[in-house]
Amino acid sequence: MLIQAMQDRLNKQIRLEFESSNLYLQMSAWCDHQNYQNCAAFFSEHALEERGHMEKLYNYVLETGAYPLLAAIDAPKTDFKSLKEVFEDTLKHEQLITKEINQLVDYALSSKDFSTFSFLQWYVQEQHEEEKLFSTILGKFTLIGEDAKSLYYIDKEISKMRAVPPAV
Question: What is the pLDDT of residue 162?
């Protein structure tokens, strides 16, 4: 059974992953509204992936005999100035999630909860991949710019980077 402090921290991460899912779904809606269909599909799939991350945590908490709590989440940002801002916000958000995961890992290790420490290693690797992905996408804006043709090309390139939601 998880100690209460770890249970509380994991429940906080469940909420953060759920917020991530909602944020990416909102970003999908914004992209669709702006006619960036590939980016819309990308963020829609990413929202499902984040929901999968939430469910993976939820199931882990259940498997330990603890009680997962689904707390209220804040409404996501709904308006963006540009497609580049969407991806900048995404990278910042993923960096926040990385920080939170690292704190969870640190707490698991310091409290000698080796099972949770081992479980969280998947999230450590996932966050590395997420930050790399969004840094790569932002690099495309730097490389080719933000004029209409560049944005068309970036939207087209995003279709090659679409995520496949993990099995839960």
Answer: 59
- Residue found by looking up tokens 């209409």 in the block: 148
pLDDT of 72-127, one tens digit each?
A: 999 999 999 999 999 999 999 999 999 999 999 999 999 999 999 999 999 999 99
In a domain, 167, yes or no: no
pLDDT score recorded for residue 163: 54
Count of structural domains, the chain: 1
The helix (run of H) or strand (run of E) holding residue 35 is none
Contacts 24+ apart (CB under 8 A), 146-155: 146/82, 146/83, 146/84, 151/36, 151/83, 154/39, 154/83, 155/36, 155/37, 155/38, 155/39, 155/83
Residue at 166 is within a domain: no
Statement: the pTM of the whole predicted model exceeds 0.90: yes
CATH of the domain at 147: 1.20.1260.10
Angstrom distance (rounded) from CA 74 to CA 161 = 28
Range of 41's domain? 4-71+79-161
